[in-house]
Amino acid sequence: MYRVLFKKKVYNFFKKHKWEKIIYDLEKAVNVLKINPYRNNLDTKKLKWWIVNYRLRIWKYRFIYEIIDDKLIITFTDWDSRWDIYK
Questions:
Q1: Greatest extent of the chain over all pairs of C-alpha atoms, in Å
Q2: Which CATH number fits domain 3-81: 3.30.70.100, 3.40.50.720, 3.30.1360.120, 3.30.2310.20?
Q3: Predicted confidence (pLDDT) per residue in 5-28, tens digit
Q4: Is the dihedral of CA 50, 81, 31, 36 positive or negative?
Q5: What is the pTM of this model?
Q6: Nearest Cα to 16, choosing from 86, 65, 80?
Q7: Helices (H), the chain
Q8: Terminus of the chain with fewer CB atoms < 10 Å: N or C?
Q9: Are strands 61-68 and 73-81 parallel, antiparallel or unpaired?
């Protein structure tokens, strides 16, 4: 099982939206990623222009994360709305 870490920007997203349904959906997605980050039924995609980064889509938000296989760690590094994350 993988361990999940959050950078400060993503952690602040949790604090800002702590009573909203998006956090519940994000926690469910993180629990699925912990078990198997590659084969799952989530809306994930490997980003072509970055080497080890993936994106997770929940509602209008995109969460960027990377997988470090040798240490079994998933690190969420960034989040933003659909229109602003890829800039």
A1: 35
A2: 3.30.2310.20
A3: 999 999 898 888 888 888 899 999
A4: negative
A5: 0.84
A6: 80
A7: 8-16, 21-35
A8: C
A9: antiparallel
